């Protein structure tokens, strides 16, 4: 329970948990705020002022009128068309409306459903050993810093943190490839390491989409109507010049039947007409909510398609990283064969999908310049380690002492050209 409270606090903090995109924040931040504000507004309206006012016989005392108002609000009312001239009898079926009282609680439940994907993303993204929001938050801090020294220090932290994560992925995958006797376990390791965050993020996007669709379906049952067509019906009435605020879903005027017991077996049955002014707020809100749901559903679906298109095809990953390194002055448009080989290994075997995904997420939360600086730092670190590894490997393979001595300067010389003269690569 304490862990859940901590996660809820993290997701509600504006300064942390920023490892998401604008469409995600529309779901887990702005929509949640709208629903909570509406729940507070309707709750205040229900318990501070009178949500219902019934027209009682003139011989009712003030206390009796208050009692009737409370009975009709807490039980059920029903709607009659203006064309109906007779009140239904005791045994006649009527369509009662009993959901007004539960609207604040339903709004809070809706808000929780919108924040759940964010909680799941926070929990499972940290299973990788690196909180993604650590990188994105550091990038946001880097963007705010005006002093170059402080900004460089923050960028160095980002490069080291992400580089450590990528190095661990490489070692885990090498270990997985040695698991010859456990083919299933080997396939799981090889498939998901380096792709876990990307696949998880797309899954969270799909959860946001499913959540909106599910909420529309649930509102159909809760409001006892075809809520999925609510917005279209409202627009149709507006085009026809009809009063779009008059609806049987949220009637301003409703009927209420109740019984007052007297001494003995005497039971007095009453039917009164009640005004429900709070329904004006309910109807306007649910019309707005329908259009809001359509908006975030469209935007989230487009965002999901964009991330799949950007992160899964390797050609798009190569193009993205190439443009960022070129913009930072670390790579030419047409590098030589050896540099191109190192570049492809850097993107496809070192960064993998997760590294490219984090770089794109940094750009979404800050700007392309910081993302380019991050990739440039990782590229320099990768080239340094690769050159050292190849030089040591050459020393072990070369039996000639003179060849061993000459091979190291050659490899180091290549590294120096990569680091000091990037414009020639």
Automatic annotation (TrEMBL):
Annotated GO CC locations: gap junction; plasma membrane
Cellular compartment(s): Cell membrane
Keywords assigned by UniProt, alphabetized: Cell membrane, Ion channel, Ion transport, Membrane, Transmembrane, Transmembrane helix, Transport
Domain of life, source organism: Eukaryota
Parts of the chain that traverse the membrane: 99-121, 193-223, 287-312
PROSITE patterns: PANNEXIN (PS51013)
Keyword Cell membrane: yes
GO biological process, one term: monoatomic ion transmembrane transport
Topology versus the membrane: Multi-pass membrane protein
Family affiliation: Belongs to the pannexin family.
Functional summary from the UniProt entry: Structural component of the gap junctions.
Protein name: Innexin
Organism encoding this protein: Hirudo verbana
